[in-house]
């Protein structure tokens, strides 16, 4: 059977890391696309040359031509610009919206059956725009944010509790921005919910509040340290987890920016919600019940995403 084809649109920091991870995990043949001449070709060759030592097979192609992504099973989109210190994700909207137009058209023309995972920021608005520009079915276009935000939350919790990250599960919903909603009630250590762990004296409400805030600021913390760009190892790993769920029909339950058509009382918009990813893409959005306080936070986050979508429509009238 032919190997799956994985097209990475954008061969920058995340794109290169995605290619290396896909190679090491032998997920399929990799095509790296970028507008920068030489960058995707150089990274593809460099990764292919790590194959003999690492022990993987596969083909690795770098290209500046959309025709080379033909028949891709998965497209992961990181094309655009990342933020620098002092910038918010929303500052990237105008420039990255134009990029989503060309990427959406390229995917529609050459890989219309792909499962498309968008990573470009501001995420929830860009995945919506990418879906509009590509015209692909809503269940085949999804945004990566919740897996990363939840991984950050899990990491910070594991440090606090001094337990393995593997035993910490966590849930982050809403838009991928300062208003994201880490759901404390649904986050656990080996099934023990965080509120119970406070009662058991494992942590205090104040410490937990600080961890929630650090999670919300997780992207900015890394931008502040790197100074020249944003996080790329954990974002790439998170998107690969989603791609693998699709390619292997794992039916993983993962928080993603998915299209809501009535779920959570939302109609026609993308926002971070729990989903099931399997061979049909987003197979289900899990419409969990929120408490009053959680609903207030979620609504605030949804409003922020709605504002960005309206701004996109203002910039590109074809989206209105
Ligand atoms: P970077 O290393 O700059 O790579 C972006 C690549 O996109 C560059 O190689 C550019 O040449 C390329 N590019 C620009 N315009 C086009 C175009 N029209 N067509 C094809 N390629 C193009 O950035 P990065 O990899 O660090 O980040 C990529 C994106 O991911 C940024 O928008 C970040 O803000 C975003 N990001 C999102 C998350 C989430 O959790 C959602 C996390 C981290 C970064």
Automatic annotation (TrEMBL):
<comment type="similarity">
    <text>Belongs to the LDH/MDH superfamily. MDH type 3 family.</text>
</comment>
<protein>
    <recommendedName>
        <fullName>Malate dehydrogenase</fullName>
        <ecNumber>1.1.1.37</ecNumber>
    </recommendedName>
</protein>
<dbReference type="InterPro" id="IPR022383">
    <property type="entry name" value="Lactate/malate_DH_C"/>
</dbReference>
<feature type="binding site">
    <location>
        <begin position="119"/>
        <end position="121"/>
    </location>
    <ligand>
        <name>NAD(+)</name>
    </ligand>
</feature>
<feature type="binding site">
    <location>
        <begin position="10"/>
        <end position="15"/>
    </location>
    <ligand>
        <name>NAD(+)</name>
    </ligand>
</feature>
<dbReference type="GO" id="GO:0006099">
    <property type="term" value="P:tricarboxylic acid cycle"/>
</dbReference>
<keyword id="KW-0520">NAD</keyword>
<dbReference type="Pfam" id="PF02866">
    <property type="entry name" value="Ldh_1_C"/>
</dbReference>
<dbReference type="InterPro" id="IPR011275">
    <property type="entry name" value="Malate_DH_type3"/>
</dbReference>
<feature type="domain" description="Lactate/malate dehydrogenase N-terminal">
    <location>
        <begin position="5"/>
        <end position="143"/>
    </location>
</feature>
<dbReference type="GO" id="GO:0006089">
    <property type="term" value="P:lactate metabolic process"/>
</dbReference>
<dbReference type="InterPro" id="IPR001236">
    <property type="entry name" value="Lactate/malate_DH_N"/>
</dbReference>
<dbReference type="InterPro" id="IPR036291">
    <property type="entry name" value="NAD(P)-bd_dom_sf"/>
</dbReference>
<dbReference type="InterPro" id="IPR015955">
    <property type="entry name" value="Lactate_DH/Glyco_Ohase_4_C"/>
</dbReference>
<feature type="domain" description="Lactate/malate dehydrogenase C-terminal">
    <location>
        <begin position="148"/>
        <end position="304"/>
    </location>
</feature>
<keyword id="KW-0560">Oxidoreductase</keyword>
<feature type="binding site">
    <location>
        <position position="34"/>
    </location>
    <ligand>
        <name>NAD(+)</name>
    </ligand>
</feature>
<dbReference type="GO" id="GO:0004459">
    <property type="term" value="F:L-lactate dehydrogenase (NAD+) activity"/>
</dbReference>
<feature type="binding site">
    <location>
        <position position="121"/>
    </location>
    <ligand>
        <name>substrate</name>
    </ligand>
</feature>
<feature type="binding site">
    <location>
        <position position="89"/>
    </location>
    <ligand>
        <name>substrate</name>
    </ligand>
</feature>
<feature type="binding site">
    <location>
        <position position="83"/>
    </location>
    <ligand>
        <name>substrate</name>
    </ligand>
</feature>
<feature type="active site" description="Proton acceptor">
    <location>
        <position position="176"/>
    </location>
</feature>
<dbReference type="InterPro" id="IPR001557">
    <property type="entry name" value="L-lactate/malate_DH"/>
</dbReference>
<comment type="function">
    <text>Catalyzes the reversible oxidation of malate to oxaloacetate.</text>
</comment>
<dbReference type="Pfam" id="PF00056">
    <property type="entry name" value="Ldh_1_N"/>
</dbReference>
<feature type="binding site">
    <location>
        <position position="96"/>
    </location>
    <ligand>
        <name>NAD(+)</name>
    </ligand>
</feature>
<dbReference type="GO" id="GO:0030060">
    <property type="term" value="F:L-malate dehydrogenase (NAD+) activity"/>
</dbReference>
<feature type="binding site">
    <location>
        <position position="152"/>
    </location>
    <ligand>
        <name>substrate</name>
    </ligand>
</feature>
<keyword id="KW-0816">Tricarboxylic acid cycle</keyword>
């Amino acid at each position: 059977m032919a190997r799956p084809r994985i097209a990475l649109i954008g061969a920058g920091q995340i794109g290169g890391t995605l290619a290396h991870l896909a190679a090491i995990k032998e997920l399929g043949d990799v095509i790296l696309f970028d507008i920068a001449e030489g960058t995707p070709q150089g990274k593809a060759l460099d990764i292919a040359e790590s194959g003999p030592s690492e022990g993987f097979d596969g083909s690795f192609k770098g290209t500046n031509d959309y025709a080379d992504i033909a028949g891709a099973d998965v497209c992961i989109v990181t094309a655009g610009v990342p933020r620098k210190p002092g910038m918010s994700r929303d500052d990237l909207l105008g420039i990255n919206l134009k990029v989503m137009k060309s990427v959406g058209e390229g995917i529609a023309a050459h890989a219309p059956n792909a499962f498309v995972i968008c990573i470009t920021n501001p995420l929830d608005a860009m995945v919506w725009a990418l879906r509009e520009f590509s015209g692909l079915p809503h269940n085949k276009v999804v945004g990566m944010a919740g897996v990363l935000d939840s991984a950050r939350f899990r990491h910070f919790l594991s440090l606090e509790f001094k337990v393995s990250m593997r035993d910490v599960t966590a849930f982050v919903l809403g838009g991928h921005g300062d208003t994201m909603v880490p759901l404390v009630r649904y986050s656990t250590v080996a099934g023990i919910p965080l509120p119970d762990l406070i009662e058991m004296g494992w942590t205090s409400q104040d410490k937990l509040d600080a961890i929630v805030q650090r999670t919300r600021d997780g992207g900015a913390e890394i931008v502040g340290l790197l100074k020249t760009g944003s996080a790329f190892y954990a974002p790439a790993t998170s998107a690969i987890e989603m791609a693998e769920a699709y390619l292997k029909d794992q039916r993983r339950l993962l928080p993603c920016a998915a299209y809501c058509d009535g779920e959570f009382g939302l109609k026609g918009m993308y926002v971070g919600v729990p989903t099931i990813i399997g061979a049909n893409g987003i197979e289900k959005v899990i419409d969990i019940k929120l408490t009053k306080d959680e609903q207030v936070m979620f609504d605030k986050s949804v409003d922020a995403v709605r504002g960005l979508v309206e701004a996109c429509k203002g910039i590109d009238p074809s989206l209105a």
